[in-house]
Specification:
Distance between the termini: 67 Å
Structural class: mainly beta
Radius of gyration: 24 Å
Strand order of the largest sheet: 3-1-7-8
Shape: globular
Largest sheet: 4 strands, mixed
Order of helices and strands: HEEEEEEEE
Number of strands: 8
């Protein structure tokens, strides 16, 4: 009986030591990793993209409030333009399993820069760049023009894991 009691005590002590040595993972332990993005302006887009701004949204798969009030500066390298049918490659610091929404600025045929979210009929789509499933991402957008409103709009977009 003493031996059983001693064995049970040893098992309990071992269990307490084992489980108390495990560190809890919290948000501060999450390391921001690079997300390599191939950003495509679809061939049937009617304008060239000259700016992309990000707003971090937190955990992917949730309808979150933004983590900050401020959009980023243009993430495209200085002088970079993405013509219809072209793409740009860049790295972003979006933690794994999180997402950011983006908004774009375009250059019309006359050399004017138009921020789609500041037009008379603003683009309000939540365009995502998600760090989920891979450290590589393909993001694509199709920008069209509405002749009635005289505004550009997002006709379509994609966001998927991997580089295509």
């Amino acid at each position: 009986m003493k031996i059983k009691s001693l064995i049970y005590s040893a098992l309990i002590a071992f269990g307490v030591m084992f489980f108390s040595s495990c560190d809890d993972v919290d948000d501060e332990d999450i390391v921001e990793s690079n997300l390599q993005v191939k950003f495509i302006n679809e061939a049937s887009s009617v304008v060239t993209i000259v700016s992309i701004e990000l707003l971090p949204m937190g955990k992917a798969g949730k309808k979150n409030d933004p983590l900050t009030e401020n959009w980023s500066a243009n993430i495209l390298p200085a002088g970079t333009k993405i013509a219809p049918g072209a793409h740009a490659m860049f790295n972003l610091k979006i933690p794994n399993l999180e997402w950011s929404k983006y908004q774009i600025g375009v250059e019309d045929g006359d050399g004017n820069t138009i921020r789609l979210h500041e037009q008379a009929v603003p683009v309000t789509d939540e365009l995502p760049i998600t760090h989920w499933g891979s450290d590589d991402r393909t993001v694509s957008v199709l920008v069209s023009f509405n002749s009635q409103t005289q505004c550009y709009y997002i006709q379509g977009w994609i966001d998927f894991a991997g580089i295509e």
